[in-house]
Automatic annotation (TrEMBL):
Name of the gene this protein is made from: dhbC
Organism name: Corallococcus interemptor
A single GO BP: salicylic acid biosynthetic process
Reaction equations catalysed: chorismate = isochorismate
Superkingdom of this protein's organism: Bacteria
Name this polypeptide is given: isochorismate synthase
Length: 410
């Protein structure tokens, strides 16, 4: 089924979006945004890799070719969905599904049906150790003192090993319930080449607060987030943190760098582009963020949502500035490969419309392991202790959805 019925009462939409979440099984594609919910199953066609070199080179053209071939084969699901990595060293994973269902936004009743997706014992292992992460932040600050690097985003991972299989459907339900205004996703991934024999599926799962770009007809929307503060359970302190964030010269500068880069990337494609003069505040259950909604109108209807996404990717919000120097620093300072973390996840249809969220607040999961990720933007004025604390706060989105509800202690 492609799309919901043309006319549907709100209760029907609510029932359908909830059913799509309940019907999710590992191996399917699930994507919920503030305006729609999607569930896709099976693989009709796979977008081929570039065949060496950078996997992102020519990716929009390859997607268009596969969608056209699928249409010529009388397949009536004109959508490619999946995940794009942080860089072209990892292959993008985009497929045309066998079936696709769509509904309106997720709506939950008042009953709390969240349960832990973990059964039995588990262990937590940070990579790198907190002290090593702080050393990396100090090294990044030294690079900024010595050269033209102005920002670098350094990440940590947290490995969760479980005694029993992870209940991905329950984890996805918990993420969707706790993050109704974000982008909740689950994407089937190809197995790693170094996977142990017998290891089951690999799934990219998370709840991103950040829209990279959306296209609907000629209308374009990007909503970069940069500059963050952890929420507090104390309402007075929570509001004070929000107020400090809006007045923080460090965070406002970090945000402005991102907005300038996004606008510069979009401007060649748009005949009009509206960039607000300053940011606003948005919040999740765990974080405050500085946010700017950038809107535009395309010059050329042939420009797809994926073309726009790749023109912007990676933004300074997930990489740094200047991009090449930041990317080099990440490669030297992070002790793991990001894979799909800080890439983008979403969909693009044959008309070029689509939505792409930044792949943050997420984990890569196989049967008994979750590898969580969190990063922080390092700029002049950052301190190792503060950036470590920011990553701890960002881990909470996944940890709380896993029923752990704890902070990662240094």
């Amino acid at each position: 089924m492609v799309g919901a019925p043309a006319v549907a009462r709100e209760p029907e939409q609510e029932a359908l979006s909830s059913r799509l979440l309940r019907d999710y099984d590992a191996g399917a594609f699930f994507f919920a945004s503030p305006k729609r919910t999607m569930l896709a199953r099976g693989v009709f066609a796979t977008v081929p890799d570039a065949g060496g070199g950078n996997s992102l080179d020519g990716l929009p053209e390859r997607v268009t070719s596969v969608l056209n071939a699928s249409r010529d084969a009388a397949h009536d699901i004109p959508v490619a969905e999946g995940a794009v990595p942080f860089d072209g060293k990892v292959a993008a994973h985009l497929v045309v599904p066998m079936t696709l269902q769509r509904a309106g936004p997720m709506v939950f009743d008042g009953a709390n049906t969240a349960r832990s997706p973990l059964a039995g014992q588990y262990t937590l292992r940070p990579v790198p150790e907190p002290s090593a992460y702080k050393d990396g932040v100090a090294a990044a600050l030294k690079l900024m003192q010595q050269g033209p690097l102005r920002k670098v985003v350094l990440s940590r991972s947290l490995h969760v090993d479980t005694a029993a299989p992870v209940d991905l459907r329950q984890l996805l339900h918990n993420l969707a319930r706790r993050n109704p205004h974000g982008y909740t996703f689950a994407v089937d991934l190809p197995q790693r080449a170094d996977a142990a024999p017998g290891v089951g599926r690999r799934t990219l799962i998370g709840a991103s607060p950040e829209l990279l770009v959306a296209r609907s007809g000629l209308q374009v929307l990007a909503n970069p987030l940069a500059g963050s503060a952890a929420r507090s359970l104390d309402p007075v302190e929570d509001q004070a943190r929000a107020t400090r964030l809006m007045a923080s010269p460090k965070d406002l500068h970090e945000h402005a760098v991102v907005i300038d880069a996004v606008a510069e990337a979009l401007r060649p494609f748009c005949k009009t582009l509206d960039v607000p003069r300053g940011p606003s505040l948005v919040s999740t259950q765990t974080m405050w963020h500085l946010s700017t909604r950038i809107t535009g109108e395309l010059k050329d209807p042939s420009i797809t949502s994926l073309t726009l996404a790749l023109a912007m990717h990676p933004t300074p919000a997930v990489c740094g500035h200047p991009t090449a120097l930041a990317h080099e620093a990440i490669g030297n300072l992070e002790p793991f490969h990001r894979g799909y973390f800080t890439g983008t996840v979403g969909w693009c249809d044959a008309n070029g419309d689509g939505q792409w969220a930044v792949t943050i607040r997420c984990a890569e999961a196989d049967e008994r392991t979750l590898r969580l990720f969190a990063g922080a933007g390092i700029v002049v004025g950052s301190t190792p202790e503060a950036e470590l604390a920011e990553t701890e706060a960002k881990f909470r989105t996944m940890l709380q959805a896993m029923g752990l509800g704890l902070e990662v202690q240094p």
